[in-house]
Write a structure and sequence with these properties.
The chain is mostly helical and about 525 residues long. Helices cover about 65% and strands about 5% of the residues. The protein has a 4-stranded antiparallel sheet with strand order 1-2-3-4.
């Protein structure tokens, strides 16, 4: 699987030395050394002071001895490291990353045996390496990469339950945005001396850059004059970092003293309630992605379930199923609604029949009273008419009640017929979906067989996959499985471990929806939805 080392291997020795020196020297302990209890105040000042341009550092009255000490420590360490060959530098970088990860709690990724190989590379040199050591080094690199990515993602609160390649790209983007914002804040508060030094630095950089890139930059910045003064002024008056990003892209980050900027970004992460160590590892990830020259995430069109389709009204038709579980739920909801209406009408029929029985009894009594009143000579005509009207009102009420009862009975009959019809339709749909699921599971099984070289699984697991996930979600799942298939240590990708020696891979497939895959080694055992 692709790791951060795929990009780091493209960096030159000087860049690797810089990464090692940053990891070794940029610590709160080194910054606060000799300051006692009052030292914490200095942490908040270091982020801005470290951004001072290197040309102006020695002349600035605000430059502190501690700031110079941190920078000097980094430069001295880099000079000492430069005496080593590349194999030793790589091993030293591994050691520093392991230390940081263990310090942050990611100790479970590493084994003593693998670390011993790294230590021997540092102590004995590359000549001691055997084929076994080479394999151990690759295993360790994979474990380091996973630990570094998951730790650095915490700086920017990124979702860690996703493929490592995609996570690396996200960390890189977030880190660079952070880096530019920290640098932009510094440019807004330059002293007169710092401003002159910065303008001179930009001016000296212009002739060394590609002419076409400079013309493009001049056009995009829309400056009347193209020199260090106008470029810096443009960066200062602009609220965002768009122009700053363009200047660095055209001229290179060296124009703004990247070493100080990197350290300042790390210290600025303290204000984000992040650890310095995690921010430094985010810098390593950014350097890796830039060194690789392209994204580390896997392309969707390389996944087995990829289909080229327009994301519009036809998207639903392109799903693997219309999601078996969703369809079943929808049909169950319809049945529940019919049953609820049927139960409601049955209760209403029972109440109406009780009212009808009572009303018929009252009618019978009123009919007798009226007949007796007609034959009575003692009652007045007005009393007889009153009893007649009372009887007629009850008769009308009984007719209305009978009509309402007939309507309810008719509705109940219709609902019963609808229930039968819907149940039959639902059963047919379930059967069709089951058949479609079996067919699509077979298709998916064959696709996965061609794509995954190491993973083993059953057709039943594929059937579960097509029932639970849409086509787009399957692609996201396949990205994670592709990394698992290429991993040298599959267990390193797990987020949990059961008593049955089952590892579990979690990956985000859509908003709020995760796939939870249980596996042993390269054998996939279970798959389910986790929300």
């Amino acid at each position: 699987m692709l790791t951060i080392f795929n990009g780091l291997d493209y960096l030159n020795n000087e860049q690797i030395c810089e990464q090692i020196a940053l990891l070794q020297c940029v610590t709160v302990g080194n910054t606060l050394k000799g300051q006692g209890k009052k030292a914490w105040k200095m942490v908040t000042e270091t982020a801005s002071s470290l951004l001072r341009p290197v040309e102006d550092l020695s002349d600035s009255s605000s430059s502190t001895e501690e700031t110079d000490g941190v920078r000097k420590m980094i430069m001295d360490t880099m000079e000492e490291l430069s005496k080593n060959d590349r194999a030793t530098l790589d091993a030293l970088l591994n050691q520093e990353l392991i230390k940081k990860c263990k310090f942050l709690g990611s100790y479970h990724f590493f084994t003593d045996t693998l670390e011993e190989h790294t230590s021997s590379e540092v102590e004995d040199g590359p000549s001691s390496m055997t084929m076994t050591t080479d394999l151990a080094r690759e295993l360790l690199r994979e474990q380091i990469s996973i630990a570094v990515l998951r730790e650095s993602a915490k700086v920017y609160m990124l979702e860690v339950c996703q493929p490592m390649g995609r996570l690396a790209d996200q960390v890189s983007v977030k880190y660079y945005d952070h880096y530019l914002k920290v640098l932009h804040r510094k440019l807004l508060h330059l002293t007169r001396g710092e401003k002159q030094a910065m303008e001179q630095s930009i001016q000296m950089r212009i002739p060394r850059c590609d002419l076409t890139a400079m013309r493009t930059l001049a056009r995009e910045l829309m400056l009347r004059e193209f020199n260090g003064h106008t470029i810096l002024l443009k960066l200062q008056v602009e609220k965002g970092t768009t122009s700053l990003r363009k200047v660095i892209h055209a001229m290179g980050k060296e124009v703004f003293d990247p070493l100080n900027n990197t350290v300042a970004t790390a210290f600025d992460s303290v204000f984000l309630f992040a650890r310095l160590e995690r921010s430094l590892m985010a810098e390593v990830v950014w350097m890796s992605v830039n060194g690789y020259g392209k994204t580390l995430s896997l392309k969707e069109d390389l996944m087995p379930s990829y289909k080229a389709y327009k994301r519009n009204e036809n998207e639903k038709k392109e799903r693997t199923l219309l999601t078996f579980v969703q369809q079943e739920k929808q049909q169950n909801d319809v049945l529940k609604k019919i049953l609820a209406e049927l139960e409601k009408d049955n209760k209403k029929q029972f109440l109406l029949e009780e009212q009808q029985t009572k009303l018929l009894s009252e009618l019978e009594e009123l009919q007798k009273e009226y007949e007796e009143a007609l034959s009575s000579e003692e009652l007045s005509e007005a009393s007889k008419q009153a009893k007649k009207r009372n009887l007629e009102r009850k008769q009308v009420a009984e007719v209305n009640l009978s009509m309402e009862l007939d309507e309810v009975k008719t509705r109940i009959n219709n609902e019963q017929n609808e229930l039968v019809s819907t149940s039959e339709e639902f059963n047919r749909l379930i059967l069709d979906l089951e058949n479609e699921a079996v067919y699509l599971a077979n298709v998916l099984y064959k696709k996965w067989k061609r794509h995954f070289l190491n993973l083993t699984y059953s057709e039943a697991l594929c059937e579960t996959a097509v029932k639970c996930f849409t086509n787009g979600e399957l692609i996201k799942l396949e990205e994670a499985l592709t990394e698992l298939d290429a991993a040298m240590t599959p267990s390193s990708l797990s987020f949990e471990h059961s008593l049955e020696d089952m590892d579990y891979l979690h990956t985000l497939v859509s908003t709020g929806k995760y796939a939870r895959v249980g596996y042993q080694g390269f054998e996939l055992k279970t798959i389910e939805i986790k929300k």
